[in-house]
Amino acid sequence: MKLRTVGLCILALAVACTSAAHADTFSFNFTGSAFNGSGTITASANGSGVYTITNISGIVDNQAISNLLSVNAFDNNDNLLYSPGFLFGAYNFDTQGVSFQLGSGGDRVNIGQGGFLNLFEVADLDPSKSNWDITEYINIDVEKIASTSPVPEPGTLALLGTGILGAAGVMRRRLTT
Asked: CA-CA distance, 118 to 114, in Å (whole number)?
């Protein structure tokens, strides 16, 4: 009997101590004189409003965002997102920004902050074409998408488990008397 009780206590403790790891999702929308786009950013929290971007999807000037570039792959990008933005909430990216590829991979884009304005830079790195690089100031809006967890919190599971065990104990006592 004691072994069963100890086993149930260990199981309840294991359920209560698990933490849910999840990524946060942000939507973005930007406009500029030459380029505009929108999409979704998936990021994991580093703490205190700083997020590491793990995925990006969307459209920039009718071209799909194909993949997120690794850190330091283009314009010394660090792929960090700040939410709420720093400097009175105005900037969601630092000077290194986030970099990604468009379409089949020829065009690389960096969205960052420079000179107290949000910057958008696109460069054509396809060797079969002439290389070009365009930088412009953009207006960008980044918002966190609220999400609900489909899995109950560990504390809820522990409370539910103890309730079920209590009900089973009451039923057992009634059947034995």
From this structure: 6
Q: Return left, alpha or beta for 87; rule: phi > 0 is left, psi -120 to 50 is alpha, else beta.
A: left
Tokens 């933005």, located at residue: 85
Q: Is the domain 24-145 a CATH 2.40.128 member?
A: yes
Is residue 118 within 8 Å of residue 93, measured between CB atoms?
yes
Structure tokens at 72: 């330091």
List the structure tokens of 16.
């209560």
Please give the model's pTM, rounded to 2 decimal places: 0.66
Q: CA torsion 120→38→116→144, rounded to 10°?
A: -140
The alpha carbon of 74 is separated from its chain's Cα centroid by a whole number of angstroms, namely 21
pLDDT in tens, 144-154: 887 666 667 77
Beta-carbon contacts of residue 45 (< 8 Å; ≥ 6 apart): 24, 51
Helices assigned H by DSSP within the chain: 2-17, 86-89, 154-176
CA–CA distance, 169 with 84 (Å, rounded to integer)? 50
